[in-house]
Amino acid sequence: MKYFLIFNIFFVLHSYSIIGQNSQKITSMISYFNDRNYSSFMTEFPETYVDFLSLYGFDLDKGKAAPFYYDSYKHINFIFSDSLLNDTRYFEKIFNVATSAKWDADATNYLQDNLITFIMDNPQYVYNFIKKYSEKDIKNFFIFILDNPHPYQKSHQNMCDRLKDLFRGIDKNIVDFIEQSYESVKKDWPSSY
Q1: How far is the C-alpha of 16 from the C-alpha of 108, rounded, in Å?
Q2: Which is it for the CA torsion 9, 14, 16, 22, positive or negative?
Q3: DSSP label of 66
Q4: What is the pLDDT of residues 50-67, one digit of tens each?
Q5: Are 110 and 72 in contact (CB under 8 A)?
Q6: Cβ–Cβ < 8 Å for 40, 32
Q7: d(CA 57, CA 52)
């Protein structure tokens, strides 16, 4: 097993020509994920969408996958599988990634899907967390949550309505932000798509 892990680490680092600090981060994340060490994994998890894409994205122009592109589903499900996500240190990283993210297939979509479920299951926690941020950050967060190439489909409109219903009894301003975010998303995607 030890040699298999060393080979995997070498393969990832060699395949993507990762050097310096990124190679240490990747090595650590592989180890923490394999050991199911949630706290340490989340300490290494990206804090921005740009950093998230550098680990989990896919560069279409170059035809090149980021180091964890093929592990993104497992990693993101792992992040949302632990109750420690309720720790603001960890949720803050997810929030920061989300406030500048745009819908995309694969890793970004996995993050979005898991985040939607987390919000639906924990609306009071999410509200208590986001209320300290600016209106712009809150709207950007919900723009990511609602971003979808098919915002006019009934199922997507229903999801938006469910989000509004969750926050209606908590804070009417958040309901307004969700509605404004949804309108922004609809402007970004043509209705004929």
Answers
A1: 20
A2: positive
A3: -
A4: 999 999 999 999 999 999
A5: yes
A6: yes
A7: 7
In 3D space, the residue among 78, 171, 180 whose CA is nearest the CA of residue 127 turns out to be 171
**Quick one: average pLDDT of 29-40?**
95
User: Distance between CA 171 and CA 124 in Å, rounded?
Assistant: 10
* Chain position carrying tokens 């420690």: 84
Reading the block at residue 183, the tokens are 């309108």
Q: Which residues contact 122 (CB under 8 A, 6 or more apart)?
A: 86
Which two three-digit tokens encode residue 43? Answer: 């300490």
Token pair 């706290």 is found at: 39
Lowest mean pLDDT among 105-109, 114-118, 170-174: 105-109
Would you say residue 88 has pLDDT above 60? yes
CA-based angle 57:82:11, to the nearest 5? 40
At which residue do the structure tokens 């209606």 appear?
168
Cα angle value 149/150/151 (rounded, 5°): 105
Contact call for residues 56 and 72 (beta carbons, < 8 A)? yes
Q: Which two tokens stand for residue 111?
A: 């993050």
